[in-house]
Amino acid sequence: MAEGCARRLQGSSQHVAAKGPPYPAACAHARSSHFLLHVGEDQQREPLPGAASLSAVAAAQQYTRLYDAEFLPRRLRRIKIFSSRPPEELSTYFHEKLNKANSNPRSIIKLYRKYIRLEDEPDYGWLVRCFCQLGNVFGFNSFWAPRDKQRIHSLPSFKFLVYDLIERKAQIEPEMVPRLLYALTALEYRSYHLLPTLLEHIEANLHVQPEACSTDRTFQRFQPP
Fold it and tell me: Does 5 map to a domain?
């Protein structure tokens, strides 16, 4: 009886060995995992050459930028993002925009601000036209009150516009003088830096522009000594 039991046990073990393990896929996965953990342990743990150093440098740079940005003023942290590409011919583009501004002083001032943001040295002819159109809005037939003109004088953009005209006053042409004088009169604004240049042009071109003679007499008393 003992011999029969031993014979049956030996047969079952041979049957299992011939048939193979019950889960071959699981055993193969276990063998591959065991190989990776023990046989290729050194190769698996070694990082790619330069990967660690690059990641460390990128992390350090990002940290430094964020750290430095916290100490910058808010105006320097602002990023200019243009929704569209600026036009190539800025002067022509803004001349067309100025045609559509009509009699709205706010639109004229906003156009000037937009122009100086895109161009370091705006076209002087456009600056003169912008100032003259602003003067036409506050002309003698308009319904604007003196208080409105005083508010225009206090705007930083208006002061920048006058400063641009003064800075490059050597580019003033004789035909610009009557319009500039009219705009200054309509706006009730006297620029002591512009008036001497304008009066010189008037005196030199009275035979060409006699209509500016009356304006010349009006502004002569405001000329600085």
Answer: no
